[in-house]
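Hi, here's the filled form for the chain we discussed.

Project: internal
Contact: R.S.
Residues: 200
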Amino acid sequence: MAKTKITINVPTNWNDITIKKYQKFLKASKNANEIEMLSVLCNVSIKVINKMKVKDRKMIIEKMNTFINKKPSEELQNIIEFKGKEYGFIPNFSKLTTGEFVDLESYMKDSNESLHYIMSILYRPIVKRQGKFYNIESYNPNLETAEKFLDLPMTFVLSAFNFFFHLGKSLLGVMSNYSRKEMIKATNKEHYKASGVGIT
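And the returned structure, exactly as it came back:
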């Protein structure tokens, strides 16, 4: 009887791992279950991993460790293309609305589970662009939009979070630097002022 050949797609960089897959991986890692972690990252059943030769399993782990342990890029990607649409990173945090602030603060309490929500706030559809300057959609919390971000590659997540780390501040630390006066000002304007700078 001929053996069934199974092709395993081994991720070689963070572009190959979505937020959804990363969240599943973290759950498996809490149990220190190497087989389950491989199953998640390679998108194959645990049954397939169990039938794998030990040397092949070790080779896959070494291959993945190459990029997992690699320091993420410090360069923030201000504009990204995702699902056929251009998204822009919040251009100016001094113009953060109360809604954005409150939701980001809430989601950061459990950042791993809420990565897709956080990224859907930080990156929003570009409504107007002139070269490197752009305006993004006003913040309007939407569960459907946030769930789309489950398919966002972790490359963008790591560069965004590393951007704040490189500045020597956490995301919440950056947001918390705004004065009460600025927050009141944002509250008064949030109903009619869109986020974004550089274009009027």
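Let me know if anything looks off before we file it.
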